[in-house]
Design goal:
- By secondary structure, the protein is of the alpha+beta class.
- The chain folds into two domains: 101 residues, no CATH class; 176 residues, no CATH class.
- It is 41% helix and 22% strand.
- It contains ten helices and eleven strands.
- The strands form two sheets. Strands 3-4-8-5-7-6 form a six-stranded mixed β-sheet. Strands 1, 2, 9, 10 and 11 form a five-stranded antiparallel β-sheet that branches.
- α2 runs antiparallel to α8.
- The longest helix is centred in the first third of the chain and has 35 residues.
- Keywords: Membrane, Transmembrane, Transmembrane helix.
C-alpha cells in the first residue's frame, strides 16, 4: 500500500470509530491526569513543608558554649561553595536596660555582630537585595508595639540614647524565644566577645553546620560547646533533597507509561480479527504497522 492510502485508511478508521481512538485517548487522559495530579500534590506539599521550615528558622543552627570569635562567625556566610546564607554572633547573656520615658520598664538587650542583624532581618523578610542598616539598634516587633517605636525613633535609656535602625518580627512559632522581646545592639565583630554563633543555611546540612565549631575562640571545659537548632520543635532529621528523591510518587511516570502500553495492547488485541482479515486480503505487515502508528500518533 502507498503511504497516502495508509494515511487515508487510518483517518477513516478514526473517523468511523473503528479504532476507538477517542475512548482510548480519553481513558489514558483521565488516568494520566489522576496520576499527574497526585504526583503534583505530593511535590506541592513538600514545597510547603520546606517553606514552613525556612519561615520558622528550621534551617538555622546555633553553637553555644565557650567564647565565639565574631569575625569568624560573620565570615561563614561568605565562604565559597557553602549553603550558609547568613551568619552572626550573639552575646551569651542579655543586659537589662530601662526606658527613661517609662521608669521601671526594662527590656533585654543583646550585643550582636553585624551579621546577626542581617540574619534577623532576613528572617523577617527584610534585606535581600537591599542593604540592612547595622548602624543602630534593632527592636523586636513586640518591643516596638509596647513603646510605640518605628524605624528612625530615638529612645532615651539608662545606658544612653539609642536610634532604632529597624524592626524585626520574631513570632512564637517554636524558635528561640529570647529575641521575642528584646533590643539588638550591633557592635563591630572584632571588638566584642560573643557567646553564640548562628548560621542560616538552605538546604540544611549537618556537615556544613559543623563549621560552627571553627568560630570557637576559647573553649570552656565547664560548658562544652554544642550545636543546637534555633527552632527545636521541628525534626532535626529533615532532609529536603532525600525526601524529594524518595517520595512515593517518584515512579508515577513509569506507572503512566506502563498503563499506556497496557491500553495500547488491549486496543490492538480487540482488533485482532480485523488485522488478521486485512493480512489475509493481502495487506503487508509493514503497511499494517504503519497504519497503527498513524492512528496512535493522531
Amino acid at each position: 500500500m502507498k503511504l497516502r492510502s495508509i494515511w487515508t485508511e487510518s483517518l477513516r478508521n478514526i473517523g468511523s470509530g473503528t479504532s476507538h481512538a477517542i475512548s482510548l485517548a480519553l481513558a489514558f487522559l483521565i488516568i494520566a491526569t489522576l496520576l499527574g495530579g497526585y504526583g503534583a500534590s505530593t511535590v506541592i506539599a513538600m514545597q510547603g513543608e520546606a517553606q514552613e521550615r525556612i519561615a520558622t528558622l528550621g534551617d538555622t543552627d546555633a553553637i553555644m558554649g565557650g567564647t565565639v570569635d565574631g569575625v569568624t562567625c560573620d565570615q561563614l556566610s561568605k565562604l565559597h561553595h557553602s549553603t550558609i546564607q547568613q551568619s552572626g554572633a550573639l552575646s551569651a547573656k542579655a543586659d537589662l536596660i530601662e526606658m527613661k520615658a517609662t521608669p521601671g520598664s526594662q527590656v533585654q538587650s543583646f550585643t550582636v555582630s553585624p551579621g546577626m542583624i542581617e540574619l534577623v532581618a532576613s528572617a523577617s523578610g527584610k534585606g535581600g537585595d537591599q542593604t540592612v542598616d547595622t548602624s543602630g539598634t534593632w527592636a523586636s516587633q513586640s518591643v516596638a508595639e509596647e513603646f510605640g517605636l518605628t524605624t528612625g525613633s530615638i529612645i532615651q535609656t539608662t545606658q544612653g540614647e539609642e536610634r532604632i535602625a529597624g524592626i524585626y518580627d520574631w513570632p512564637n512559632d517554636g524558635r528561640d524565644t529570647k529575641l521575642g522581646f528584646a533590643l539588638l545592639m550591633p557592635h563591630p565583630a572584632s571588638q566584642n566577645d560573643y557567646g553564640e554563633c548562628w548560621a542560616r543555611q538552605w538546604p540544611h546540612s549537618d556537615r556544613t553546620s559543623e563549621l560552627l565549631y571553627s568560630t570557637i575562640a576559647d573553649a570552656d571545659p565547664q560548658n562544652p560547646s554544642g550545636i543546637l537548632p534555633v527552632n527545636r520543635t521541628l525534626s532535626s532529621n529533615y532532609d529536603a533533597n532525600n525526601s524529594y528523591l524518595k517520595r512515593d510518587t517518584a515512579f508515577m511516570p513509569v506507572i503512566a507509561l506502563a498503563i499506556g502500553c497496557f491500553i495500547g495492547v488491549v486496543a490492538v488485541r480487540s482488533r485482532r480479527l480485523e488485522y488478521a482479515g486485512a493480512l489475509h486480503s493481502g495487506q503487508t505487515k509493514a503497511s499494517q504497522i504503519a497504519g497503527i502508528g498513524i492512528e496512535v500518533t493522531i
